[in-house]
Amino acid sequence: MIFASTLELCEVSIFFNDRLLRGNRAIKIDADGLAAFDSPNFPALATIGARIDTAGRFLWRPQPVCRLRVHTSLDTRIVCVSLTPGFDDGAISAMIKHCPDLHGLVLRLYGTGNGPAAKAGFLQVLSDAIERGILVVAATQCPRGAVSLSTYEVGRALLQLGVISAIDMTTEACVTKIAYLYGRGLRGAALRDAMAEDLRGEVTFRPQEQPSLLERL
Question: What pLDDT, in 10s, does the model give residues 113-157?
Fold first, then answer.
């Protein structure tokens, strides 16, 4: 109740196990324990002990006062695939071929964005998907850390194909962001640029020379 009535808190958050976490940075890590949620790549917004300690510098900046706008148009034609050793890239190919309305493909890769080095067919499948207008995003299976496609040879090949890095977004935030941006009508280069932009604190901030996407829409 204290946090809910705090004017400085202008974002969706999760309060669990005496910690206040940014919602789009949080993941569920325990099905049974009290420490059920964590924010691996971003500090807690506040903690409660004998006193309330608030990390004010991490709070999302307040937006200009205006009438509330709720964007309900979300494009959910998105698939998330976690790679496993020895996976059959033919399954991904079949999914792309038989899902003509697919708009987004989120790949949960190894480490900083590595994948199978000996699977030429895998790269061809992704190339075909991108040519069909499907947004392909590379995320990581690791709870902590960020995607860096330039680190390994396979990652560099993905960059050349046009695969987008999720940077340090959680899988949940990545999928939701794609659904939101497609729902706002973004396509092509505008969509790709928006995926790398920090819209609501979901990704580690990177300086932008141009006005933010939300200011342009």
Answer: 888 766 778 899 999 999 999 999 999 999 999 999 988 888 899
Scored b (16 or more CB within 10 A) or e, 132-163 reads eebbbbbbbeeeeebbbbeebebbebbeebeb
d(CA 139, CA 81): 10
**Which residue pairs from 201-207 have beta carbons closer than 8 angstroms and sit at least 24 positions apart in sequence?**
201/11, 201/22, 201/24, 201/25, 201/42, 201/60, 202/24, 202/25, 202/169, 202/170, 202/173, 202/177, 203/166, 203/167, 203/168, 203/169, 203/173, 204/41, 204/146, 204/167, 204/168, 206/167
d(CA 72, CA 25) in angstroms, rounded, equals: 21
d(CA 4, CA 14): 11
- Beta bridge partners of residue 37, listed in sequence order: 28
d(CA 102, CA 20) in angstroms, rounded, equals: 35
Question: Can you give the pTM of this predicted structure?
Answer: 0.87
pLDDT for 61 equals: 78
Protein fold of 78-216: Rossmann fold (3.40.50)
User: Mind listing the pLDDT tens digit for each residue in 153-174?
Assistant: 888 999 999 999 999 999 999 9
Domain with CATH 3.40.50.40 in the chain: 78-216
